[in-house]
Specification:
Elements: H1 3-16, H2 45-55, E1 61-64, H3 71-78, E2 82-87, H4 90-100, H5 105-120, H6 126-130, H7 146-162, H8 168-177, H9 207-218, E3 231-234, E4 248-253, H10 267-272, H11 288-294, H12 298-309, E5 310-322, H13 328-336, E6 341-349, E7 366-373
Parallel strand pairs: 1-2, 1-4, 2-3, 4-5
Antiparallel strand pairs: 5-7, 6-7
Length: 375
């Protein structure tokens, strides 16, 4: 894309903010699989749609090196682009992988049947059962009827033994039903996004039955004919030059806002993925949201890596919030310009955005999109 064309596209994007208009403004807009697994801090699907549509060429490739649960790459795949997602979190990477290659319903049910048979062969040790006494605001065992808890522990042991493999969709669906306040959930009553201390009676709920119901519901809406299966990676963004073989046409990503942490609000799902109490204090230090608290200079490495991955003339769109502590937006402008051409910016006031039932929606007042181009 010529710089002048990119500048015109940015100006049009700012003047219309198309993802805020009409049906795109609805919180529920988008394909059903965007909600495959609830997740705090998820990119707005309508915004992802318009960023891909406006700044990634038709038939081109889109990468999100901080992909989270794959909102941008999934929307890119829906729009016929070659999509690549990556995330360091095992939870987010599992959900992202599920969206890149959704199975048929028959395939998903076969995955569940395989899991059910594996669970019958699992012997839980005293150490396995002791794992259920971990918790950040209540113990894992407080969330489930004793029989449901045993099923969760057995499924977890299968997951930690076998890994995601080709069953990412099944595991992502299971992660979704681990907790919540609706009939689909395995837990006692809790919040569907952040597992607050549960309430209500201990009622047995079959893991396999809930999982079958979830995949059936999730796959009820077919994918469009132009959907292109994507590529998913689990690891640090710095590892991507060794994993992504061809330069990409667009990088669309959203670094963590200042003060945001993805491990603690998702602690129960992170526990299922193998994290222990120690990991929340030590392993989390390797994540960008913790590193940027010490110094935003870590983004020099980030922009350097993205420059290696971006094709000449390619566009990098960076979504970040402002209004809280620090000036991450200003730091990213400065650091990004050391590697790429800063062509323009768009800004949206989000002070009136709903809090989705959470007690604290944060201090973010504006969403910024910084648009860079590799010369």
């Amino acid at each position: 894309m010529k710089r002048s064309d990119l500048k015109a596209a940015i100006d049009d994007f700012q003047s219309t903010l198309p993802y805020t208009e009409g049906t795109y403004a609805s919180r529920s807009w988008g394909h059903k699989l965007h909600s495959l697994c609830s997740y705090q801090g998820k990119f707005k699907p309508a915004m992802a749609h318009w960023l891909v549509k406006s700044f990634a060429p038709e038939g081109g490739s889109v990468l999100d090196p901080l992909g989270g649960v794959g909102t941008v790459p999934f929307e890119a795949a829906l729009l016929g682009r070659r999509a690549i997602t990556n995330d360091k979190s095992p939870l987010a990477a599992t959900v992202g992988a599920a969206k890149m290659s959704p199975p048929s319903l028959d395939e998903a049910l076969e995955q569940i049947s395989r899991l059910e048979k594996q669970m019958l062969t699992v012997d839980l040790s005293a150490d396995d059962i002791a794992e259920a006494e971990f918790g950040l605001n209540a113990s894992v065992s407080a969330y489930y009827h004793p029989e449901t808890l045993l099923e969760v522990l057995k499924a977890r042991k299968v997951f930690l033994t076998d890994g995601v493999r080709g069953d990412a969709f099944m595991w992502a669906s299971l992660l979704h039903v681990l907790h919540g306040n609706r009939p689909y959930a395995l837990s006692r009553t809790s919040h569907p996004i952040t597992p607050f201390n549960p309430t209500g009676e201990y009622i047995y709920k079959s893991l396999i039955e809930r999982l079958q119901n979830r995949v059936t519901s999730a796959l009820a809406v077919p994918l469009p004919q132009n959907f292109v299966q994507g590529e998913a990676h689990h690891g640090d963004f710095r590892e991507l030059p060794n994993k992504v073989t061809d330069p990409v046409d667009a990088i669309i990503t959203s670094p963590p806002f200042i003060g945001m942490r993805f491990d603690r609000p998702n602690w129960l799902r992170m526990w299922f993925c193998g994290w222990s109490a120690t990991d929340f204090h030590t392993k989390s230090l390797d994540f960008l949201e913790r590193q940027q608290k010490k110094s935003t200079n870590v983004y020099a490495e980030f922009f350097s890596t993205c420059t290696q991955l971006l094709a000449p003339g390619g566009v990098m769109a960076v979504h970040i919030g402002s209004g809280g502590r620090g000036d991450l937006v200003g730091d990213l402008r400065t650091l990004g310009k050391g590697y790429l051409d800063l062509v323009g910016e768009s800004v949206e006031n989000v002070e009136q955005v709903a809090n989705h039932g959470l007690k604290d929606k944060g201090l973010t007042k504006h969403h910024h999109m910084l648009f860079f181009q590799r010369v």
